Each structure stands twice: as structure tokens, then as C-alpha cells.
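Reopening this ticket.

The earlier resolution said the output was attached, but the attachment link was broken on my side. Pasting everything inline this time so it's all in one place.
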Amino acid sequence: MLRRPPYPASLETRKEIEKHINELLEMDVIRKIGHNEIVEITTPVLITWNDGKSRLYVDFRALNNYTKADRYPIPRIPHALDKLAKSKYITKMDCIKGFHQNGVKPNSMKLLQIICHMGIYEYTRMPF
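Inline output:
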């Protein structure tokens, strides 16, 4: 069992974390779990700042010990760019919180748990 305490955060950062956690709760992307539940992996919540805006990131590197290698990895970027080189049109689509559209299997939710000063939560949809 791996359990990490939340990273220390300033009052301002805590307010931003609360804003993001509440937004994810409203969107049913995460749910709060009890402190007495068995926690497989609990990861700290990180906030990064970009032009005054914040974004919620979670350190899921510990999950690498639980995942299987992908036998069909995505193509290398240079190969993909070579295929695009002679294209007449290129379309770019940006989905807001696109990963959150995909649900997580119930047996995988315990691996997608986060901890912050507000408590322990688990993702019910794919995290970014």
C-alpha cells in the first residue's frame, strides 16, 4: 500500500485547489471517499500556474508499477509529421477536459485516488 501526504500548499494555492476539486465534483469526475477506506494509491494534488490561471495536475507516476507495457505504442512524432507534410488542410480540435469524457472501471478507481487538504477523492472518469 502506498500512501503519501498532500504537498504543503499556501492559503492561495489551497483556495485554487478547492475551486478545482469542487468543479470536478460538480461534473461527477471525482467523488469523495471516506478516510477509513483502504487506499491502494493516494497521490498528491499539484497546481501549476500559467498566466494567472491554474490547472489541476496529479502525480500518477507510482501507477507505472501497476501498468502493463503497451504492445502497440503511438507512432513517433517525426513519422506522424512526415505523413502530414503534404497535407492541404490540417484541423486542430481542442476538447475542454476531453479525457473526462471517458469513464473508469470501478476496479480501477482505487488506483486513481488523490489527496489534498480537503480529503481523499477518487476519479470516476479519466484524469488529465
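Reporter confirms the inline version is readable. The chain has a mean pLDDT of 83. Residues 11-26 form the longest helix (16 residues).
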